[in-house]
Fold:
Amino acid sequence: MTRKQRRGVLIGVGVAVLMVAVGLVLFALRDAIVFFHTPSDLAAKPIEIGQRFRLGGLVAAGSVKRGEGTKVNFAVTDTLETVPVVYEGVLPDLFREGQGVITEGKMDEAGTFIADSVLAKHDENYMPPEVAKALEAKGVKLGEGAKHPENVKP
Structure:
């Protein structure tokens, strides 16, 4: 084999190994590539109990209930489905009902999301782009004068 042929074989083997590595990584991350799930996504495809993921949507109106200490119960909705959330810690200053939120944590056996972090929007005109896209895909209109679907669950 000439030097040119050996170099070609070496490059070919390197490319093949790289393609196999990328394939394995994509296979391993096939379910984790989604940035977060909406309540409707959870209703359609339940997540395993104890698996970490992000839940995004709007804080449901009338759902924020403060417990003792820093414990807070609230619900995240995409106006089609609602998921109860329990969080213990200090909420962001701009956290309030009707605003976009992304929480990170795990589901428990009762169907309650146990959050260990909460991210809220930073001004009245901003909502995380992923949350806005997911809500618009579900038929929720955003902005002033928005009308929501008839089958809104409280």
Notes: The radius of gyration is 22 Å.
